[in-house]
Amino acid sequence: MAFPHAFYRWRPHPWHGLEVGPNPPQIVTAYIEITPFDAIKYEVDKATGYLRVDRPQSGAAQPPTLYGFVPRTLCGDRVARLCPGAVKGDGDPLDICVISERPITRADIILSARVVGGIQMVDHGEADDKLVAVLQNDLIWGQCRELAELPDNLVARMRHYFSTYKLQPGEPVNASGTVIYDRSHAEKVILASVEDYGHEFGA
């Protein structure tokens, strides 16, 4: 008996084996690495696709939203050109924050997210954008289309988290910017990251 066409005999790599999304750049796939309940920073291992313990969260703050990345994207030269102050991309997939009204307490999951904007960051001279999105079918946030529709305090909390989450005692602050941008610019960043991925990996 033949397996259905959509059946994966082996688990696909979260970065390279999943689709960008059902309708990019408006609706994308998000692979979630950490949740607002995690005191440990998990990050996908690029060689295996498994979640790796990166480090304990260095400060008291925990991520304000679900946090992960968009498959088959890359922060490369094209993304860097959209980020003033960056000399290059960080070489990672494009990060994404996803807002959900109901608590989602586990990572290593995928979901469909509607992009509403983003946060522009420069870390050690590298573009390190964070897309902001809402869970596509969320009963409270699912109708949002623009970052301006989100509460100001929620956006401020995300900006504060990303400006401080890598701070270590005695070390200088290397992340700068945390400028917010709207959905239109976020879509340009997504399309640039898809092009960067295709240039790097030929897909």
Short synopsis of the structure:
The protein is an alpha+beta fold.
What share of residues are in beta strands? 25-35%
Classification by helices and strands: alpha+beta
Poorly predicted segments = none
- Number of folding domains? 1
- By oligomeric state, this entry counts as single chain
Please name the CATH architecture: Alpha-Beta Complex
How can the largest sheet be summarized?
5 strands, mixed, barrel
Task: Estimate percent helicity.
Answer: 10-25%
Find the CATH topology: Inorganic Pyrophosphatase
- Order of the strands making up the biggest sheet: 1-4-6-9-7
CATH class descriptor: Alpha Beta
Distance between the termini: 31 Å
Q: Helix segment count?
A: 3
Number of strands: 10
CATH superfamily grouping: Inorganic pyrophosphatase
Mean pLDDT, rounded to whole units?
90
Specify the overall morphology: globular
Instruction: Report Rg.
Output: 16 Å
Question: How would you characterize this protein structure?
Answer:
By secondary structure, the protein is α+β, with helices and mostly antiparallel strands. It has a single domain (27-166, 174-201), classed as Inorganic Pyrophosphatase (Alpha-Beta Complex). It has three helices and ten strands. The protein has helices at residues 77-81, 152-164, 183-201, and strands at 27-34, 40-44, 51-56, 66-69, 88-89, 95-99, 109-123, 126-127, 130-135, 175-182. The strands form two sheets. The chain has a five-stranded mixed β-barrel with strand order 1-4-6-9-7. A hairpin with a 2-residue loop joins strand 7 (109-123) and strand 8 (126-127). It is globular and about 45 Å long. The model has no long low-confidence stretch (mean pLDDT 90).
